[in-house]
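_Per-residue structure_
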Amino acid sequence: MAADTKEFNKVVDIPFPEVPPTVKSKHTVQEQIDEMRLWFKAFKEQDHSVRDYRKYFKPNLCYLEGGWTLNAKTLDEPFQSDRHQLDATSWFDLQEKIRWTSYAGSKSNLENFAFLPTMMYNITDGLPQYAQWNYRILCHPLKQDVPTSYLKVQDDLSTRMRRKYRWDKIESQRSARYKINEFGTERNTQYTFLDALMAEIPGKDNYGANISDAAFGLQTFDISKSGNVPLNAGHYHRWYKVARAGAMGLQSLGDKEQRFLCFDVNGNSSYVNYKHNLSLDPLFNLSLSLSPPLSLSPSLPPSPSTPVEFYHGDTSEHDAADTARSGASVLDAKGDLKRCAPTGFRILTPNIDGVGSVRIRYPVFPVHSEGSTVGMELEVHRSHYTCFFVAGCTSLHVVTPPRNPPGLHGHEFTITAAEHKALLNGTDLQVTTSYNLGHNHQLTIYWHQNQHVYYIRKCDDQTVACWDGHGALLTRVRV
């Protein structure tokens, strides 16, 4: 994780959570195993009523961070890795090796090359100034709990069809890919739970960064807070608001498809001074140590120790690139041989008796096809024909007002099938209308159970009618 100092690229270790006291209070290894299994069961079922696992099963958000740095001469390892390091003596040497492997169709057998381009961003006194693209992978211990129900598995058809996997088998595979959706259904969104998580993470200025963004004389404000609270651009964000509406009549700006970015002022970044967050991997930091009943030899370095008996066999997937072993034999304080299971991070744990396999990592990242023209064409066809398979969206029209000015005009907005169902069940919805005649409206709408019509309850946070004379009645757009 990033440090709490201003030192460039300074990182520190994430502390491991404590072992639950109910586990440590047991007097035998088997009793500890039985108790720890109950904690894993509570975590898997997300039931914290009896055993509040949230204190000991801590979520971390791992992320890939990329940006331009000013050091284009010295080859710097972007981050510490136990498995890979750049196999080059300089950035130029690395680029030459990448050119060769690209032209020849070969690769680094140990996968220690990386395509990290250099750009010329300025010329001073006839001398070019270069910036170097670099990246790093870090993890951030989240301050808030992440319910696993928010993590929705995604369907990669090409992978599933190639391996002949049924849909119900996907989540039990290490290749499963997720997205974060706290709503439980597809819907149009702006600031979401993911934005709140990312706002905890700083850039190269590390924790404590506080940078204001007032480019072009336009101060940006935190969209998650009421009132005009300046946005801390030193942490990752993608949505913000401004005091004055722009040409589109909007004050809330951003894009749900936009990559998260943040600013830094440490002087080691390029002239643009921002960093991008490219992909995510939420994982849970678990308490797996069952000491002291295991009582390993005092000559061994202190480390978490989990007896192999904690697991019921090992039915998790294996890959040729895996570095973890099934276990290691160590001596206890009496000199007896004890076999311990690996306690590092897994994607899925082996089977735990009475619990099953527990997922620890939830990769959240886009796949290449989603940004290609083929992927976009597929999404267009899927959206066009979705009405044959699932309930479609509902579009509503705001009645045209007779007032002039501003003149005759109307607005429309669309809600998803799930939002429409909630509306019919008596839930008020907040929506943003289309932009017409220089403005739009923020509406609170509801369904009148007796009259069977749609009404506006609030317009632009006012309980009275819209300022430009729109009526309260909404009409459904027929397609």
Notes: Residues 44 and 442 are 39 Å apart (CA to CA). The first strand starts at residue 58 and ends at 69.
